[in-house]
Amino acid sequence: GDLNGEWLCESTENMEALLVAVGVGMIKRKLFKTAGYGVGKNRQIIKQDGDNFHIVTHGRNTVDNKFTVGQDAKLNTQDGKVVNAKISWNGDSLVTETEMMGHKVKVSRSVGADGKMTQAIEKGNVT
Questions:
Q1: What is the pTM of this model?
Q2: Any bridge partners for residue 52, and if so which?
Q3: Residues 6 or more apart in contact with residue 103 via CB below 8 angstroms
Q4: Region label for 93, one of left (φ > 0), alpha (ψ between -120 and 50) or beta (otherwise)
């Protein structure tokens, strides 16, 4: 899939359940909720050349990551950590298996027929 572009978070779904699943405490969850989970603020700039990616994420912090699909990667996180990641394609979806707050998660990004990118984060049975 082609993920090139600048993507602004327009909406979120099920964020409370995901934050609970990755162990975020009540006070931080309330702060994230008060901030609208980044809706209208969090932005990703994706430059893609085949299987090579450069993603800059502007959220609480600015995070810059470069990686190649099929190769193990080390990714910077919003909370200043570096995590290992396995990146692959599932059809037109870019899939990143990594960690969020110390918990294994799977992040999928794809662009729909409407031209909007969807990013889904899975932790166990919570998406």
A1: 0.85
A2: 49, 68
A3: 21, 22, 23, 123
A4: beta
d(Cα 54, Cα 37) in Å, to the nearest integer? 23
Closest CA relative to residue 75, chosen from 117, 51, 107, 32: 107
Residue 91 burial (CB < 10 Å; 0-12/13-18/19+)? exposed
List, for residues 102-127, the tens digit of each pLDDT value.
889 999 999 999 999 999 989 888 77
Per-residue exposure over 10-48, b if at least 16 CB sit within 10 Å of its own CB, e if not: eebeebeebbebbebeeeeeeebeeeebbeeebebebeb
Residue that is written with structure tokens 């909007």 in the block = 116
